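Duplicate of #3305? Posting structure anyway:
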């Protein structure tokens, strides 16, 4: 299915204030970002461009087209853990239906890598954003950074999980916790763990061994 139910995600709004169903908002965000719409303002324009039938399929209603402020006010109040469970359910459903397989490497390979996200000029708005400079003059910029794990042994290469890296830590300090969580969630999905040159360390190697995995 292109769209999801998001049944496990609690709606933070009071029932009498709900105009657009939460499922519709979240499906709009997912499909819009997949279509290359990078900002909430882009999503506002995107929902006006699609047909009423498509809006119904997303769960919004044929004549519903939420603005960027509405989308923002909902997204900022959601529980990230609930959204993580939606991802887990989506992957498990694909595995059950045979849509997701380790067709490239039979034993399964999970690749860990740091990924930069949204960035902007100025100083970081919170401790979950990383601060840096963009030129020789020290012009400040900030960006979101995550450690993300993908199943690269599959042609689909789905993202299995991610963890935000705050201003006081880095990829190597986030690796063990994320690895343990992914293995607990998908214990038999992969046997090999890989990453770039920043990851090998005694602590990280010991974690991989304790979880009965192999590091490449």
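Output from current build:
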């Amino acid at each position: 299915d292109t769209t999801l139910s998001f049944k496990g995600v609690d709606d933070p709004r009071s029932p009498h204030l709900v105009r657009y169903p939460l499922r519709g908002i979240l499906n709009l965000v997912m499909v819009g970002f997949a279509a290359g719409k990078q900002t909430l303002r882009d999503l506002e324009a995107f929902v006006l461009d699609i047909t009423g039938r498509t809006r119904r399929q997303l769960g919004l209603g044929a004549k519903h087209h939420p603005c960027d402020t509405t989308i923002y006010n909902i997204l900022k109040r959601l529980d990230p853990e609930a959204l993580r469970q939606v991802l887990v359910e989506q992957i498990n459903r694909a595995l059950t239906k045979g849509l997701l397989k380790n067709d490239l490497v039979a034993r399964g390979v999970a690749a860990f890598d740091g990924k930069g996200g949204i960035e902007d000029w100025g100083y970081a708005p919170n401790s979950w954003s990383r601060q840096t400079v963009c030129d020789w003059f020290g012009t400040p910029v900030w960006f979101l950074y995550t450690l993300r794990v993908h199943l690269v042994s599959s042609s689909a290469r789905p993202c299995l999980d991610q963890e935000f890296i705050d201003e006081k830590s880095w990829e190597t300090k986030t690796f063990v916790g994320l690895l343990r969580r992914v293995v607990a969630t998908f214990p038999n999905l992969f046997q090999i763990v890989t990453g770039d040159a920043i990851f090998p360390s005694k602590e990280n190697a010991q974690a991989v061994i304790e979880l009965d995995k192999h590091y490449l």
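Confirmed duplicate; merging threads. The first helix runs from residue 22 to 34. The chain has a mean pLDDT of 91.
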